[in-house]
Amino acid sequence: MTTTDKIHQTLRDSAGMRWLVLLLLAFAMFCSYIFMDILSPIKDLMQSTRGWDSTAFGTMQGSETFLNVFVFFLIFAGIILDKMGVRFTAILSGAVMLVGATINWYAVTDAFQGSGLQTWFTNNLNYIPGFDELGISPFYRGMPASAKFAAIGFMIFGCGVEMAGITVSRGIVKWFKGREMALAMGSEMALARLGVATCMIFSPVFAKLGGVIDVSRSVAFGVVLLLIALIMFIVYFFMDKKLDEQTGEAEEKDDPFKISDLGTILSSGGFWLVALLCVLYYSAIFPFQKYAVNMLQCNLVFKEVPTDSFWATNTVTILQYCIMLVVAGASFASNFMKKASMKYGLLTLAGVLLTVFCYMGYMRQSAETVFAVFPLLAVGITPILGNYVDHKGKAASMLMIGSMLLVLCHLTFAFVLPEFRDNAVGGVVIAYLTILVLGASFSLVPASLWPSVPKLVDAKIIGSAYALIFWVQNIGLWLFPLLIGKVLDKTNTQLVADLKNGVITPEEAAVSYDYTAPLVMLACLGVAALVLGFILKVVDKKKGLGLEEPNIKA
Ligand SMILES: C[C@H](N)C(=O)N[C@@H](CCCCN)C(=O)O
Fold it and tell me: What DSSP designation does 285 have?
């Protein structure tokens, strides 16, 4: 390398530095995704220890997106990102997530119970004029005080996490444009999926540590991780600053945000098709994720797991997690290997480990360890599918196949799984197969949807386009956890009455819901997504949007 080459080399020209930046951003998202679902695998414990019924649980979970949707925070986040740049917005989003998560944690601690704050929240915030009339309030009369306060924290966290999502996407574009951008995006999403698996496995472990149930321990674990996420963003800040010093660019000055940009995006038909498909598909996945463990508890009979010692309870769980890390590592490695034989060897190894993983989950017999396989498959194949879209295309077809699989899975959960309630082996096998297929669907759609956005809008307004899609998507992510909770209570009237009259205990009630109606509702979302996918494919062919074309042309 000559002296001139050395002078012109920036941080982003070094593969090591580029991937270090990706690691920082992706690890921050990994921590955020852990917090996003930290309460999901312990819905039953929230009901038995904090008195959150399904409506309270669903309302609290849905509150995550309330400010983004109704106060248009996501639109402001897009504007902040375009005006202030990636590194400022990254730190801001990290700090917002941490503040919200800390409030959420305090709400579920024992210290909150019996405090003045609890009394205040019991007597207040029952009604938000305007929102209640429309049935879209994040609070309702009779909602437990802890759920109300937790909802406030989760709303603030939701602003931070969505802001982080669009910031990280733009950060990846800044550092990887013209290089391995799709692989970087796929790897970031894969690590986020690993975050979901981590919380599905470890949240119940922390809540039940030492045989004493304390749900706030799980949330505290998430808060510590968000602190680490903020540190990651701070390190990123300095690397990004250095890059701008080296290049003499400042993207927020070179490419300032204009309100008219929003109009340009909103007038694109292709953009609307993708945004609507996104809201329908993700509404059938993320809200489901919040109830999936409980749905399995209600549909399968699990053996009692010993809780006398940490190792008796958690050895298999920890081994399962180690296998998951190997599968993730094998997937990442396979993307960097040049030789196809090596790639298939690693994939075979991942397949074998996946089988062992499932077997361990079956031996361990708990809903969390069975559902943990869902994000695992997405971890393994999202980067591979991203690579496929880069080199072979077929994004619109992949969107359709992913939606079709989604419908199939929700209908299986609704009508086939309950038939195996008394068949321990058959039930777990059906559950595993369906979850694995759902995991494949959750790889096909994200891997093809997000890289399609740059084909629909100008590169200059990509940040605002992602913010707008996230905003539309957040409407569904707000509405559907809440709707699932309401539909559950409305279609399980006998159970709700028995619980109210003390005929059954909260522990029994928590694992006795009939999930058929909410699952059919989610399957309908999948059907609508499939129809939109078909329309998108037709429009793509007619207008030549290039969605079926590879990103990298030889
Ligand atoms: C929940 C969030 N709004 C979302 O849509 N997340 C996507 C990833 C979007 C790309 C982030 N760089 C997901 O599939 O998790």
Answer: T
